[in-house]
Amino acid sequence: MPESQGPTPPEMGLSRLSCVSCRARKLKCDRTMPACVRCSNVDNECVYPESRRKRIYKRANVKEMEEQLARLEQQLNLHIVNGEKSRGTTGTKTAPDPQPKEMSTTIDAPEYELPDSGSGYHWVSDGQLIDLGVSEPLPPFEVVEELHDIYFRNQHHSMPMLHPTLYLQAIHGPPNKRPPMCLQYIVWAMASKGNEKYDFYADAFYKRARQYANMDEMQGDGDHLTLRHLQAFILMAGFEAKCMLFTRASMNSAKSVSLVHSLGFDRVDDPDISPASTTVSAASWIEIEQQRRAFWGAFAVDAHASISTGWASLIYSNDLMTRLPASEDAFLSGQIEDAPFLDEVFQGASHSTFATTLVICHIFKITLNHTSRHSHGAAFWKRHKDLDHKLSSIFMFLPERFQSPDYKSDPVAAHTNLNLHATTICLHYAAVEIVDKHSHSEATKQQSLSRMRISAEEIVEVVKAISPNSFIYKSVLCSLSLYCAASVYIYLARDNPVEGLPANELANFEMILRSMETTGHDHKITRALLLQVYRDAERYGLSSILHLPDTGQVTEVELGYCPSVFMSVKIAMIRQPIFSPLQVGRLPLGAGDLAFQDLTYNTLENSLDLPDTSTYTEGSTSTGQHIQDVSMPLWPQSGNDFSSQMLESMTSHDPTLNDGFELELL
């Protein structure tokens, strides 16, 4: 045909290309100018195109589809070869290996149905999601969109690593640009956890995230893990800590720290390292900021692990060459903003809200490391003075919104002040115990007692100002702050057992207990710490003085055991000598020469434990593991005597809860 030949000079009165009408009807056009014969006969407008029509598809798309098809065929072949062997080994029907992450979100799922309020939100029969495999369906589009909205509205503030706009663009982008499935599923799990509508599926989403993460780790040499995988590990550690799966959380925390170092995110702003020498190159400031935030997320989970267990921190703050996170507005808008380094904060450098929470994690960690040491000489008091100076600097250089805040309208400011005052209490409580033990100057003791009393009163003021339903009560550091304040009043009552507490201090103590009782309905760490307050008071014979309920049949052996109470804090608050190796969850309680008791399960005839909000069925995390149903035990109902209900509900010991840390920054 003339139009298919190479370009030639057009003849006089003829167009080089056929008209649009003839091309559309696939008829031969005589190309007569200004209108061809066919268009003239039917009185149709004749339009000649200026250039040839483009192809209706791009070759790149065809190549991408061929690559995806080859990967899918490879997965199917592996399943056919190994299917019988897998069934014989596990004794159950094993699903095929998960599809590659590029293919996962492209599979249609017609069997999904939108949740119905009367059906328990089951997407498939029996309330179970089907096995992992190439045919694995994803939640309906509407459900995914709602889960993303829930996550960025309610969960994102606790660890603001993901850029909402970029993440959602990637989710809705081409398959090869989407986040790995482990990150997608853990985001959905975080959004589902505690949500009235989707909480039932949090366990299934979490298990799928774990399985996809394990699969990605085993691919190739394991050197293909990216920033998105790091974000997934950090969020998984946070989710596991919320579910009191502390051993798993600590393992994912260690993975995130190791991956941070291998990616070079601990030296993002090192002037001696050229950008070309880093493992990951960032194309924009937002991507660099995401690297910083991922590093500080790993720093936060590592700090919480050290705070809660007493284990050594895996990140050394003296070696950091990554700036603190910039402000949230700059991060969202992409406006370049230079944030300070960690040590510059103590010299008065302005910093963001997220950076403030990280500074608190850092100072809390080094304070508890200081108080857990057994030295009491000049080295102790030198560290004490340095830490007290750092705390004073933090109070002095807090962002303006935190210095004279309206706690009711700014819960983040309330959380920040709670944590700072709790750190102050831990620091000076250790100093008071050293003074009592070694008969140091009474003036030093009174000075520290004054600081403790002021901080406890400030914590009470914050509790009075905020709503009992505030999200900050879900933070472990908030629960820890309430426990520290209660411990101050227990010490003051122990120091003066005859007269007890003055009326105003007794009222403050009761206010703290009421707050812990109210929030303990939905937060197990708060329940554990409240129980620890009762045990501390009973240990020193202060239950009647402090008007506490009788704990009933709590034996002497049980007083030395309380799962999930922070080891470092208990050591700091009680200064108990330890003669046997530390065992997470089996913590010393008491003072003087009472030795740490190496308890075994057989000695705990009436051991106390916390009911778990979700039952995680253990088993192989292999690719074909069938996802189990999730059962939800009932919590004690609220009433006039929540304390007695709580004590009655803690009657069995679960080894899976016998370790200790939870992650949540805000």
From TrEMBL:
GO terms for molecular function: DNA binding; DNA-binding transcription factor activity, RNA polymerase II-specific; zinc ion binding. One of its GO terms (cellular component) is nucleus. CDD domains: fungal_TF_MHR (cd12148), GAL4 (cd00067). It is found in: Nucleus. It comes from the Eukaryota. Residues 18-48 form the Zn(2)-C6 fungal-type domain. Its main location: nucleus. Keywords: Metal-binding, Nucleus, Transcription, Transcription regulation. One of its GO terms (biological process) is DNA-templated transcription. The keyword Transcription applies. InterPro entries: TF_fung, XnlR_reg_dom, Zn2-C6_fun-type_DNA-bd_sf, Zn2Cys6_DnaBD. Residues 81-103 are annotated as: Disordered. This is Zn(2)-C6 fungal-type domain-containing protein. It comes from Clonostachys byssicola.
